[in-house]
Write a structure and sequence with these properties.
Belongs to the YbaB/EbfC family. Binds to DNA and alters its conformation. May be involved in regulation of gene expression, nucleoid organization and DNA protection. Pfam families: YbaB_DNA_bd (PF02575). Homodimer. Keywords: Coiled coil, Cytoplasm, DNA-binding. By secondary structure, the protein is α+β, with helices and mostly antiparallel strands. It has a domain of 67 residues: Ybab, Chain: A (2-Layer Sandwich), CATH 3.30.1310.10. It has two helices and three strands, in the order αβββα. Strands 1-2-3 form a three-stranded antiparallel sheet. The chain is rod-shaped, with a radius of gyration of 21 Å. The protein starts with 5 loop residues before the first helix and ends in a 13-residue tail after the last helix.
Length: 111
């Protein structure tokens, strides 16, 4: 059994690290819009989790139904959070699978 070329493994690891950092930066810079109530409540969230905008359709602002509005806002936050997680999985998933390609051992590094 031949020894793995450590220089090639290190170069591949550095390339994957750069791709990982680029994907993380792309996720943080991205924005998603979570919605509830068929778009009556919208929450815009960055990939970092920072909320940058909330839109409320005037139809949902009913002083007699504050609980309903709160539920819609929570639903929009939940939807935005789910979308950020899906974005992270989409961007990071292929990179995390690539770590197994670095070698033959269980660590993926040929040890």
């Amino acid at each position: 059994m031949s020894q793995p070329d450590m220089n090639a493994i290190l170069a591949q690891a550095q390339q994957m690290q750069a791709q990982l950092e680029a994907a993380q930066a792309e996720i943080v810079a991205a924005s998603v819009v979570g919605e509830a109530g068929n778009g009556l409540v919208k929450v815009t969230m960055r990939g970092s989790g920072e909320v940058v905008d909330i839109e409320l359709d005037p139809k949902v602002v009913d002083p007699e139904d504050v609980d309903g509005l709160q539920d819609l806002i929570l639903g929009a936050f939940g939807d935005a959070t789910h979308k950020v997680q899906a974005l992270a999985e989409e961007k990071m998933g292929p990179l995390s699978q690539g770590f197994g390609a670095l070698g033959d051992g269980p660590s993926g590094l040929g040890f």
